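TL;DR need structure tokens for one chain.
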Amino acid sequence: MPQRSLTKEQRAEALQRWWAAFPYGDMGQRLGAMHKFEEQHGPLTEDEKRAALYRFSPAQKEQLGNSKVFEAPTDIGEKEALKLCGQLLDDRHYDLLLNETGMVETPTNYEVPLGILLKNRIPQDLLDAVRPIVRKAARRKVAGGNRGVAAGTGMVQRKKRGGQMSNMRGAPHLEDLSDEDFTRLRSAKDGTLGFNARSVRGGQVYPCRVTHYSGALPREMALMGVLAKTVAEAFKNSWVQDRWEAQFEKASQTSPVWLIRTSEGHTPFTTVTCNKSWRTAAHIDKGDLKEGFGVICCLGDFEGCDLVFPRYRTAVRYQEGDVLLANVHEVHGNTPLLNPDGSVPKVGREPERLVCVFYYQERMDECESTMEKEHKFINRRERGQAMRKGKAKAAGKE
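>> reply
TL;DR here they are.
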């Protein structure tokens, strides 16, 4: 109970003094300050409590990514946004451009931001050290790959070496593309670092495994681990810390052998997708932990390739050294890739733009504790049996 009754004017003065001395500490300090005020001056209103819980210093706001908060100008709806998948996006698809540290909220969901841009969070010496590694990891041509929607080409039936049609589908090869798609995708490459979950492709069962780029040297993987730790720290200390907590908890339930690690411990990531000079068409990311969040950085000297979210007519411009936290389960894609001076590049002379997308791949917690046990599980698995280690253990298998 308050020590004495206050007039409206006295309470306003006490509240003003309290705000002036309010601690910008952790949640415990905030709650303690609120409790002390209520003991002395009576209950806080719900609006005052909310203001206290979300009152941050300028330095804290910069770290959290909410130093400036913008609301997306509109919401055209999920159905209309999905119609754009596979199409190329440009400046006609957005009205709001985020190009400074800040956060974009959607008009319909204030709990999950659309994106948070954190400027200049990665040291230049680290960027220079990982640049050749990311370049090496992005080694597969997008044309002829497995991402036809993001390529903007669609998926076509593959041909076997003998010319017969196979049951597998993929993006068309370069020689089968239109002139426009050939120009756009000639230099586009992608690849991965880290680990993949169990999968079935073309009737073949694949175990949990090192991803396509398996030739990374220990020193290279160590450097990528440092980069992963750096962006993970930005993720952890951001406004979407709850998403980091959910992802880190899932990673903690996964054998460390399947996690991107440093000498200090594991990160919340299993996999890094690396893209090179690829302007993606509108698409939705799949296969990553839905409770997590997209964590992205890029390297290179270029203009353009802003990340557009057409449903909310919003785009984000992020450059080398920045960390972008984004809801990649919304439809998104890139504007054209341009030269550093803003001019259109000549065919085959596109500027190098390297992108790293860090994520926890779903169902990695079902992998066995070692690679040897994982291969043993897959080799002993009976045809038609579910690819879940729990079922194997129930059947008396390791």
